[in-house]
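With this grant's support, the team has encoded backbone shapes as discrete tokens. A representative record is reproduced below.
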Amino acid sequence: MKRVVFIGVLALAFSFREAGYEVGDLVTDFKLKNVDGKMVSLADYAQAKGFIVVFDCNTCPFSKGYNDRIVALHKKYADRGFPVIAINPNADEKSKGDSFAEMVKRAKQKNYPFVYLHDETQAVARSFGATNTPHVYVLAKSAGTVRVAYIGTIDDSPRDAEAAQKKYVENAVDELLAGKPVSQSKTKAIGCGIKWRDA
């Protein structure tokens, strides 16, 4: 009887385990609408060596605080093969400021040099296991596959860019570009919880 109870508890624990990618996992491509109305997928970036995928939004104070740093990441690494792919997963009925129309306004206001994609069904955020905005996944391409190399936050100073001592995303991309394994492949994402649609 005790064995049956133990197995039941174990099965229950696994059923509540968070879904999503872990470091080293293969990434399935997706296709989402950009703020210019065009559909975008990872396959569109044939020359890319990898990607800096950022689940982000218009409204979260942490997202706003990291906004210029995300732009800087794209400007620093896009030409070196690691463009930023920003994805807004928030349900607009839960967060009016994150509607597609507001995304278009935000991208124009901030003059985003990267794509800003609308995850309308939230399927991509769920497949990645994203929980916050911002939540970053550095992806590395190799032999026709795309794998997760880093998951977490951008740096160790969400409120003050100048105070950042550890630049996790930059370090991860620099190591990948140097042909090295990522020395710190996972950190805790700091930000607002994703606004999920009601089931």
User: Anything to note?
Assistant: Confidence is low (pLDDT under 50) at residues 1-17. The helical segments are 2-15, 61-77, 100-110, 123-128, 168-177. The first strand starts at residue 31 and ends at 34.
